[in-house]
């Protein structure tokens, strides 16, 4: 998490994209993060977006803000323990097929890079359950609180 902390501190303009589906238990991780962070952080150089399951619909806002850092937050299957967080490069190998949403982040980042020069980070949380109409698991809820604390401290 220290690398993440440093990347945030160095960035001048940041876009945070919460990705997920609130109807599928732990898949709500990213959107809950975005909504909760919006309540806590007021910074004109930080744009926080609840992208739901279609981050590609927010390309205009992301590019228009002209960030030097884009942070995607999503529930990600990486064979970790439920609630475990991973920091990854959405343009790397994980960017192909980790999300249950729309287009892969790798393709999304390729499009963004054609318009702006921004670094990207993916923060993934291993879900415990993707049950429809289920509640967020205890493990993912704890990871959410931990990540919110870190962002509130750094932003």
Describe the structure.
By secondary structure, the protein is an alpha/beta fold. It has one domain: 3-Layer(aba) Sandwich (Rossmann fold), CATH 3.40.50.1450. It is 35% helix and 20% strand. It has a five-stranded mixed β-sheet, with helices on one face. Strand 1, helix 2 and strand 2 form a beta-alpha-beta unit. Helix 2 runs parallel beside helix 5. It is globular. The two termini are 15 Å apart. The mean pLDDT is 89. It comes from Pyrococcus kukulkanii. Pfam families: HycI. This is Hydrogenase 3 maturation endopeptidase HyCI.
CATH class: Alpha Beta
Which ranges are low-confidence, i.e. pLDDT below 50, for 5 or more consecutive residues?
Answer: none
Which fold does the CATH topology refer to?
A: Rossmann fold
Mean pLDDT: 89
CATH architecture: 3-Layer(aba) Sandwich
Category from helices, strands and their pairing: alpha/beta
Total separate domains: 1
Name of the CATH superfamily: HybD-like
Strand fraction equals 15-25%
Helix and strand string, N-terminal first?
HEHEHEEHEH
The profile of the biggest β sheet is: 5 strands, mixed
The first-to-last residue Cα distance is 15 Å
> What is the strand tally?
5
- Computed over alpha carbons, the radius of gyration is 14 Å
The helix fraction, in percent, is 25-40%
Shape: globular
Pfam families: HycI (PF01750)
Protein name: Hydrogenase 3 maturation endopeptidase HyCI
InterPro entries: Pept_A31_hyd_mat_HycI (IPR004420), Pept_HybD-like_dom_sf (IPR023430), Peptidase_A31 (IPR000671)
């Amino acid at each position: 998490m220290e690398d993440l902390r440093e990347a945030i501190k160095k960035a001048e303009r940041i876009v945070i994209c919460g990705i997920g589906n609130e109807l599928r238990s732990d898949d709500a991780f990213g959107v809950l993060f975005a909504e909760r962070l919006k309540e806590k952080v007021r910074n004109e150089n930080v744009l926080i977006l609840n992208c739901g399951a279609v981050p590609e619909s927010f390309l205009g806002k992301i590019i228009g803000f002209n960030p030097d850092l884009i942070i995607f937050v999503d529930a990600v299957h990486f064979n970790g323990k439920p609630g475990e967080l991973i920091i990854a490069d959405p343009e790397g190998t994980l960017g192909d097929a980790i999300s249950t949403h729309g287009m892969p982040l790798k393709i999304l980042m390729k499009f963004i890079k054609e318009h702006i020069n921004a670094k990207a980070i993916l923060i993934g949380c291993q879900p415990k359950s993707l049950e429809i109409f289920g509640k967020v698991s205890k493990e993912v809820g704890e990871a959410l609180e931990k990540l919110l604390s870190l962002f509130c401290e750094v932003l």
